[in-house]
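User
Here is a favour to ask of a fellow structure person. I am asking you to supply a protein in sequence and structure-token form. Please set it down just below, with no commentary around it:

Assistant
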Amino acid sequence: MTTQLVGPGVLARRPEIVPIAATAVAWVMLVLGWPFAGWGSPDPAGHTGHGGIFTPSGVAMVLVMTVAMMAPLAIPGVRTVAFTSPWWRAGRAALWFFVGYLAAWTGLAVCLAPIAETLAGVLGSPALAAAILVLACAIAQFDPRRTDLSRSCDRPMRLRGTGPDANVDCARFGVLTAARGARLCALPMLAMLAVPSSLLVMAALTALSVSDRVTQGSRRLVIAVLYVILAGALWMSVGQHLY
């Protein structure tokens, strides 16, 4: 007679699957042209149709872009909640954290999108607006508080172990993690929203944001130089309607 033991599920053992899978799906959607098909492709001046950001299609566009750019930065948090929760609810804890994290980042992105569009309109070019914002990202690398801010992004909080309260705590931790990360990543997000149709720029900003968090300030100069190079490429594209 054999006894089958019930143990941790896949999400309990590999909670990073949640943000990694979400990132992959978001990038596939963007590469295939959704949700831009419903949103409307930007015109040469960089403006979009269908009523602006505060519409279902506008929020959908921002949500997919947010997942593509910010979901990788949720990996430390989902691992923390999964590995500090009882094994039987570790996968659920990771999902609740990720929902709270994405909700906070999507809300912030929806607020930032009109600012990016307004800046592009004032300057007369989305690429120029993005170039200035990316240059600001390079300058921000030399903020003396940056290392401490980076290390604080994934600082854990006390989580209740069972019941609905545990789910609430995991979601709250996701919101808190996003709020901490916004102090470092709001500028790259704003730059990305200035040229929402450029997947190359989004990919570059995502790579730089992830590198910034992973290195926690130990490669500031390198990351700043890469931001300057990206800003230069955007600057040179002004007037050519490449973005």
Q: What stands out?
A: The longest helix spans residues 90-123.
